[in-house]
Design a protein that fits this description.
By secondary structure, this protein is mostly beta strands. The protein is about 5% helix and about 45% strand.
Length: about 130
């Protein structure tokens, strides 16, 4: 059974930083692209960032490009999202996502139509940015 467990959310002032982690278990972590999505109150869940199996390719939403960095440690079966220069509009529940098809690209996760890809999801972690 695949499990994704996020940690690292919290309350931060605008301009600050947070680092999210997602620990995976239940399958060969290194065979699947991973990503982060977020959902703000009253809005649909949206793509944030994705990373390929080996970590060499990444893909970002325009809204976070240059501020957020996705990474992964396959030896630890963990992915990360380093969030810098946070803005109040980054406030959301952040979800770790794991692809269900092996060796698909990070760009596929980032460009697929909303809810068109089957994913494993974590439980979510709240990020709140205040001004």
């Amino acid at each position: 059974q695949v499990q994704l467990v996020e940690s690292g959310g919290g309350l931060v002032q605008a301009g600050g930083s947070l680092r999210l982690s997602c620990a995976a278990s239940g399958r060969t972590f290194s065979s699947y692209a991973m990503g982060w999505f977020r959902q703000a109150p009253g809005k649909e869940r949206e793509f944030v960032a994705a990373i390929s199996t080996g970590g060499g390719n990444t893909y970002y939403a325009d809204s976070v490009k240059g501020r957020f960095t996705i990474s992964r440690d396959n030896a630890k079966s963990t992915e990360y999202l380093q969030m810098n220069s946070l803005k109040p509009e980054d406030t959301a529940v952040y979800y770790c996502a794991g692809d269900t098809v092996s060796f698909r690209s990070a760009q596929t996760m980032g460009t697929a139509p909303h809810n068109s890809l089957s994913m494993y999801w974590g439980q979510g972690t709240q990020v709140t940015v205040f001004s």
